[in-house]
Amino acid sequence: MKRVDDFRLRLGKNELVPIMIGGMGVDISSADLAVAVARLGGVGHISDAMIKTVSDRRYNTKFVKDKLKVYKYNVENEDKSPVKFDLGKLIEATRLHVEAAMSRKTGSGMIFINCMEKLTMNAPKETLKVRMEAAMDAGIEGITLAAGLHLGSFALIENHPRFRDVQLGIIVSSVRALQLFLKKSSRTGRLPDYIVVEGPLAGGHLGFGMDWAQYDLATIVAEVIQFLKNEHLDIPVIPAGGIFTGSDATAFLESGAAAVQVATRFTVSEECGLPTDVKQEYFKASEDDIEVNQISPTGYPMRMIKSSPGIGDGIRPNCEAYGYLLDANGKCAYVTSYNREVAAHPGVRKISVMDKTCLCTHMRNFDIWTCGHLTYRLKDTTRRLEDGSYQLLTAEHIFKDYQFSTEQKIALPE
Ligand SMILES: Cc1cc2nc3c(=O)[nH]c(=O)nc-3n(C[C@H](O)[C@H](O)[C@H](O)COP(=O)(O)O)c2cc1C
Fold this sequence. Notes:
The structure is a single chain. By secondary structure, this protein is of the alpha/beta class. 32% of the residues lie in helices and 13% in strands. It contains 13 helices and 13 strands. It has a six-stranded parallel sheet with strand order 4-5-6-7-8-10. Strands 9-13-12 form a three-stranded antiparallel sheet, with no helix packed on it. It has a two-stranded antiparallel sheet with strand order 1-2. It binds flavin mononucleotide. Flavin mononucleotide (FMN) binds at residues 22-25, 28, 47, 49, 114, 116, 146-147, 171, 198, 201-204, 240-243, 261-264, 267, 370-372, 374.
């Protein structure tokens, strides 16, 4: 009987255990997690979501305070278009985070960064270019293009000296999205080095509509593999979303996938960036506690635990400090919803906003608990302690369980 360890993923000159831990925004997939996974021979991701905030928390910088100081005059203003990111500071924050992770790397695995296109930052092209180039300058080994079609992203960095040496991957949820990406990127004469196919059971934002339940990862993966075969393209395909056991992973590897991308099981690892009490919420969640909703201002459906404190919260938008979701015109759907509710409830001090959430603030504070569909099975991956809480797991334990387990077994911790 085969297991994940019988397979290897080849990326460039690297031979890897075919397990990639997906990027999880705002420091949930922490450098600690990425370093642990690289040591074990797999691929770990850090994320550049809200990188200045992450830098402040991790490396004692004051980027957020400094930005707020510059734009404080605008806090009461409905028009957020003047609130721009200082690109120099964005470079500095990215370098700090990437260099800190890379300097700690040991082992034969790799560390990549997850770059979401929907983090439009009030100047989508300029900021994305700076984010990717600064990560390459700081020695990142790969960039995974996420949350968006990324039709112009290769072109943005084609003149960077590492454009052809760094591993570049794209996340898609359909053959059509992949076709579009390949067509638009072809001008740069470069193909992606890997393709993550993310199905409807993943955590974070979904590349599907609210009809997500009608789609099935295995079917989309088979379609993508067939498409690449027809086009005579040899690019590793990496399924993601709902791959919960080593056996689930092995089944994909046996049907032509080059590796798997997983995330949910690592949300309850010691190395994961979520606060300890929030990890307990992930353990406790039952299937009914998890929903896909449309409160993300990005316009993509997002999966989360229903009791996330950020849902319905009517906090004043924090764009002057953060502003990561402001589009090219300085607009964010939460700002619009918030202003509508303020106008509808004159004199009310604490309003509620149900249709959208201030995702920057709430992700920053770990108050939106985004999660994969199978989060409700996490409680079966550990032991209950005497005080009723669940035992956290090491990333190594979870990684090795994926790598070596068979017959749908899940190894419990010592
Ligand atoms: C808590 C959490 C946060 C996530 N954040 C991101 C993100 O910032 N960017 C991204 O591309 N994918 C994100 N994802 C998706 C994962 O990278 C991964 O592809 C997917 O969740 C894999 O499925 P699984 O969680 O069922 O293993 C997130 C997933 C989780 C669970």
